[in-house]
Amino acid sequence: MKQHLSTIIITFVAATSIVGAVGFNAFSMSQEEDSALPLLASPPPKVSVVEATAQTYSASIQGFGEAIPRYSLELTSDISGAIDMISNQFATGNIVTPDDTLASLNDTSYRAAVASAKANLANATVALMEEEHQAKQALNEWQSSGLASSDLSPLVLRAPQLAAAQAELDNAKVALENAERDLSRTQISSPFNALIVTRDIQLGSYVQSGDVIATLMGIDVIEIKIPLSAAKWSQFDLQAYNNGEPIEVILSSFDKSHTWTGYVTRVENHLDEETRQRSVIVAVDQPLNLDEPLLPNTYLQAQIAGKKHDSLIQLPQTALSKNGDIWYVDNNNQLNKYEAELVYEDDQFIYIRPLNNSVSSLQAVVRPLNSYVVGNEVTPVLTLASSNQYQAIEGE
Q: Which CATH class, in words, describes the domain spanning 72-103+193-219?
């Protein structure tokens, strides 16, 4: 029995050795075959690029401001009195002209003042005529007396009395002018074409001189003050403005639903004390008569036509790296970069100088990564540059 058990054990060990040897040989052959196969290289990563060529561009200067009427005021009363008439046109939201009478004050006392001033003027006129007659008579009597002219006194010819009468007449004329002016001020009207914002009187109200009657906004011209930074001012065509050339401005609402066209009417020659910025004043004529009225106090975005530049490259804003470099793919499909000379930018693009005078175009990387290394081989994929949306491709 022991001999039979030993035989079984020996047979099992021998079989195990044979199987192990066969497995080892098979593994060794597999390793040799694998080492004989060539290694497959991974393809260069894809990068999206835009084909950029140096061209002539006109700078577009972006700014923001509020539409404010050129003229606006709190209309006040110059005289005192009770309001005895208010026009139906004198209501908030209505548009009025200087020919429209908005309201009137009781004018009884003012008509009486005019009548009194006319009477005083008539009396002063008569008094002056009498003094002139007496002065002429006094001169004739002196000449008839045969006295020497060296003894002639101004009092004899009534010169002081004549001057006093003339002064009384002048004073009476001025008093009549004041009385007539006060009478005219009982009729209240706007000094310009205006939009009524508030009405501060009622029928029967008693107003004192200086009391507010209404708040008015002019409607002929609306202005937008656009503060500009020093960088944006460098792109404003000040020479064209000084030469009287029109500078167009495109105005749009913040939601981009409406646009208007204005023009630069003047520039400010000082810096704002708080913002330290200089402003351009943009005007729009007849703002309420436009197809889409431009209402006062509307907040606007402005695009001002700026200087014209030759040989600039237009790129999406995403093409500028955090370090201020432009990455591009050279003729050997390798990554390269150069420090961008930024001339100006708008809400979609940046405008930079070319790499050098001999290279006016390049394949710029749309979205460079921080991991890029100069000289790395890549596969450029052209992306359209017609909008500010550049589709990133896999691998960027």
A: mainly beta
